């Protein structure tokens, strides 16, 4: 309990002081995770829509597998991406290992199943509502897809937030592919792991609290956006 | 109206449709030309009127037989020459104007023309003041009028309507009927269903009577209402046709 | 869709692409990748000496700190340019197999056997690690092992062999293998009031000691030698052998040795240059 009070004190001190190192680490965490979510959204939303709208053989199996992939262990993803990006691996020539780019790649893989599955769920429901009307208008599959995604955008934001939550909180993948290199690939979660391993428990917890606040801020912003949108267009 | 080739006539050849085990449309052979301008489909609940409309429009594929339109036309042109107003309006989570705008965008109408048509459609349906209101915030009657406005804005050659005034108050229903009349006068072919015999009398040029998935009678309106040839139709007009049996025959004996 | 909203959404999506300029500018500065151990990292040595090297040569050193086994694997795969670990047999094998240019002895400190001040096995003050381990096994006092194939772990196993104790038989009872780095193992030992073998560097920097204390130290068998190896370009042509060599040369030079010796925690020197 003592430790927790010290942690809150150190979190408060860190936020108040806003020292440059902290800002650097927070900045990198946000850049990596937001980039990963953005890329995963660009790939995953149309994919989720495609699975929601199309009937194809093995569709049910695909959905089950996608749902299962939401539980991919981050450390496993980290290892796989390491093997891919290692200089001894197939994509070694790209020289991406131990860079933020590698971290983004790993997090995209982690976040993609979440975005695909959750968006599929939402869009399938919307499609149930709109299918007949869109067919009546003779919308092409692409037009239908764009309409569904745009119309369901606020519900889809929840899917993106779930993905972001996963990305910002994971340590297994970014530790392995990033290497926790000071000033280069050190993010909040790897900093916490490092401080914990040094026995600096209150600093580690303090950083953890800062991370929570960060995540909270992003969620509040997104929720605010949703409320704003729903006020203008009630469901 | 666009100077486009006409997509009529619509021909249904030996169309049948199943839902689960039930055959809901049977042996439909039917042809819709440009005249008579307004065809009304009537029948008891469960007769298959809505499904019949959907099969004609093409949103439901028949299990047997086929639906043919005018010869050698690009399917896109064909699809865009028709529009449908459903019994329950399905509106998107946008403003009223936005809903119409989207439909026009899907039909690839240019921006300036879209603005013009949206304003015109909202105006004609008395919804001009709801232009920027979220469509789902409108009352049911207003939503149904919006669905009609959306269909109108598309400038179709054929307009299908499935019980369009079913839940509207008399003023709104009257407005909708006058719009339908105006549209058919400007050359749009109207194919609609109704359970309101008075409405049918007001609007129809011809009547198609459906019972249990079959076309039992088809005649010009005046002739039909004067005296239908089919006895089921006559029973229907008399208000004696129940959806699962004829009251006058089985009365007093108990359920079938 | 109105324009202000489109712009707002695009900003949200493209904001993270501002990461790319960072990657570009970082790539302008020459750097090498150093694969090393968590013990050297946690001791704070690198924070102390690397800025001195970078200031002098303009070469940045990026440290990836993992267990000794993992560091060797990274170097073998060509993902590091220099290797700095503390297990001589592995380092020699690395060079013999042609992955490394030459092994240079760099510095040394020692391992310490830490445990609860209550000391149930009664080993405090002893100078023989093997004996101490034997006593711990006899009394079945809880012992935390790193169990992660690191230099520390390998040394610990050697001492068990000397004490003729078969630890695999007892794994899961009083002998607990955490499969983790030194810091995590110390945290575990601290919480369990268990004995564990630690390198002095990590121990001195460790902030969660609670009632753990150094109980046995100073034996010759507890000397912890660090070696540094430049990864050879023979197997991995892209490896920055020249820059790596400059780093190793500096480490072995007077300036490097002074820097290493100058690193202290609470006034105590942690590493002794060879």
Descriptive report:
The complex is a heterotrimer of chains A (235), B (256) and C (274). Chain A is mainly alpha-helical and 235 residues long. Chain A has a single domain, classed as MetI-like fold. Chain A contains ten helices and no strands. Chain A has helices at 2-17, 20-53, 59-69, 74-85, 100-136, 141-151, 153-169, 172-178, 188-197, 201-232. The longest helix of chain A has 37 residues, at 100-136. In chain B, 43% of the residues are buried. Chain B is globular and about 50 Å long. Chain B is built from ten helices and nine strands. In chain B, helix 3 crosses helix 4 and helix 4 (111-124) packs across helix 5 (140-153). Chain B folds into two domains: 7-71 and 158-164 and 172-256, P-loop containing nucleotide triphosphate hydrolases (Rossmann fold), CATH 3.40.50.300; 89-155, no CATH class. The termini of chain B are far apart. Chain B is an alpha/beta fold and 256 residues long. Chain C is globular. In chain C, strand 10 and strand 11 form a beta hairpin. Helices cover 45% and strands 24% of the residues of chain C. The chains are: A mainly alpha (235), B alpha/beta (256), C alpha/beta (274). The interface between A and C is large, with 33 and 41 residues.
Blueprint (SSEs and pairs):
The complex is a heterotrimer of chains A (235), B (256) and C (274).
Chain A: H1 2-17, H2 20-53, H3 59-69, H4 74-85, H5 100-136, H6 141-151, H7 153-169, H8 172-178, H9 188-197, H10 201-232
Chain B: E1 10-19, E2 22-32, E3 38-43, H1 49-57, E4 64-68, H2 75-80, E5 82-85, H3 96-106, H4 111-124, H5 140-153, E6 158-162, H6 170-185, E7 189-193, H7 197-203, E8 206-211, E9 214-220, H8 221-226, H9 231-237, H10 247-250
Parallel strand pairs in B: 3-7, 3-8, 5-6, 6-7
Antiparallel strand pairs in B: 1-2, 1-4, 8-9
Helix pairs in contact in B: 3-4, 3-5, 4-5
Chain C: H1 3-14, H2 19-28, E1 31-37, H3 38-42, H4 45-57, E2 60-66, H5 68-76, E3 82-85, H6 88-96, E4 100-116, H7 129-139, E5 143-145, H8 151-162, H9 167-170, E6 175-177, H10 182-192, E7 195-199, H11 200-205, E8 212-216, E9 223-231, H12 241-252, H13 254-261, E10 264-265, E11 268-269, E12 272-273
Parallel strand pairs in C: 1-2, 1-3, 5-6, 5-7
Antiparallel strand pairs in C: 3-9, 4-7, 4-8, 4-9, 4-12, 10-11
Helix pairs in contact in C: 7-8, 12-13
């Amino acid at each position: 309990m003592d430790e927790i009070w010290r942690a809150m004190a150190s979190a408060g001190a860190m936020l108040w002081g806003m020292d440059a190192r902290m800002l650097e680490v927070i900045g990198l965490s946000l850049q990596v995770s937001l980039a990963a979510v953005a890329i995963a959204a660009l790939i995953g939303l149309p994919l989720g829509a495609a699975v929601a709208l199309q009937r194809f053989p093995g569709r049910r199996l695909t959905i089950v597998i996608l749902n299962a992939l939401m539980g991919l262990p981050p450390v496993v993803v980290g290892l796989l991406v390491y093997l891919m990006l290692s200089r001894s691996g197939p994509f070694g020539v790209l020289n991406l290992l131990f860079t933020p780019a590698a971290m983004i790649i790993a997090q995209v893989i982690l976040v993609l199943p979440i975005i695909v599955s959750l968006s599929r769920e939402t869009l399938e429901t919307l499609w149930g509502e709109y299918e007949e009307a869109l067919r009546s208008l003779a919308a092409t599959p692409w037009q239908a897809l764009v309409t569904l995604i745009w119309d369901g955008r606020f519900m889809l934001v929840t899917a993106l937030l779930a993905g972001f939550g996963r990305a910002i909180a994971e340590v297994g993948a970014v530790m392995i592919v990033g290497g926790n290199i000071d000033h280069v690939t050190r993010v909040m979660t790897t900093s916490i792991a490092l401080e914990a391993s040094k026995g600096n428990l209150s600093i580690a917890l303090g950083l953890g609290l800062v991370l929570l606040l960060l995540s909270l801020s992003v969620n509040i912003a997104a929720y605010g956006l949703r409320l704003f949108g729903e006020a203008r267009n009630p469901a | 109206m666009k100077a486009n080739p006409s997509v009529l006539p619509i021909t249904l050849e030996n169309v049948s449709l199943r839902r689960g085990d039930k055959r809901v449309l049977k042996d439909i052979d039917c042809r819709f030309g440009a005249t008579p301008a307004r065809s009304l489909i009537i029948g008891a609940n469960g007769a298959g009127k809505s499904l019949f409309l959907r099969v004609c429009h093409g949103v439901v594929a028949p299990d047997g037989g086929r639906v043919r339109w005018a010869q050698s036309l690009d399917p896109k042109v064909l699809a865009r020459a028709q529009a449908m107003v459903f019994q329950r309006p399905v509106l998107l989570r946008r403003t009223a104007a936005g809903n119409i705008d989207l439909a026009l965008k899907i039909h690839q109408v240019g921006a300036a023309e879209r603005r013009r048509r949206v304003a015109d459609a909202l105006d004609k349906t008395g919804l001009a003041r709801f232009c920027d209101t979220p469509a789902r915030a409108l009352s049911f009657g207003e939503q149904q009028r919006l669905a009609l406005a959306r269909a109108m804005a598309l400038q179709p050659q054929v307009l299908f309507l499935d019980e369009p005034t079913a839940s509207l108050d008399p003023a709104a229903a009257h407005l909708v009927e006058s719009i339908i009349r105006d549209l058919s006068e400007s050359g749009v072919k109207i194919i609609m269903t109704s359970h309101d015999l008075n409405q049918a009398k007001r609007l129809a040029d011809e009547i198609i009577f459906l019972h249990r998935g079959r076309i039992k009678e088809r005649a010009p309106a005046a002739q039909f209402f004067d005296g239908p040839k089919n006895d089921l139709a006559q029973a229907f007009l008399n208000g004696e046709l129940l959806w699962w049996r004829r009251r006058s025959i089985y009365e007093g004996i108990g359920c079938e | 869709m109105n324009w202000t909203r489109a712009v707002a959404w695009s900003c949200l999506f493209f904001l993270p692409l501002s990461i790319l300029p960072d990657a570009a500018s970082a790539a302008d500065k020459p750097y090498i990748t150093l694969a090393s151990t968590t013990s050297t990292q946690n001791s704070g040595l690198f924070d102390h000496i690397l800025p001195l090297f970078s200031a002098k040569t303009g070469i940045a050193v990026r440290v990836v700190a993992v267990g000794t086994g993992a560091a060797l694997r990274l170097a073998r795969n060509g993902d590091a340019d220099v290797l700095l670990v503390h297990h001589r047999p592995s380092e020699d094998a690395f060079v013999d197999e042609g992955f490394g240019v030459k092994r240079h002895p760099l510095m040394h400190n020692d391992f310490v056997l830490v445990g609860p001040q209550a000391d149930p096995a009664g080993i405090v003050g002893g100078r023989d690690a093997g004996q101490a381990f034997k006593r711990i096994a006899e009394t079945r006092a809880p012992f935390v092992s790193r169990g992660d194939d690191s230099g520390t772990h390998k040394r610990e196993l050697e001492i068990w062999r000397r004490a003729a104790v078969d630890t695999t038989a007892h794994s899961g009872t009083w002998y607990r293998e955490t499969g983790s780095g030194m810091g995590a193992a110390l945290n575990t030992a601290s919480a369990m009031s268990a004995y564990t073998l630690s390198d002095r560097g990590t121990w001195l920097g460790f902030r969660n000691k609670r009632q753990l204390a150094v109980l046995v130290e100073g034996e010759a068998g507890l000397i912890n030698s660090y070696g540094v190896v430049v990864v050879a370009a023979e197997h991995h042509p892209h490896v920055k052998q020249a820059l790596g060599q400059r780093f190793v040369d500096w480490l072995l030079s007077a300036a490097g040795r002074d820097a290493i010796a100058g690193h202290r925690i609470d006034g105590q020197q942690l590493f002794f240059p060879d």
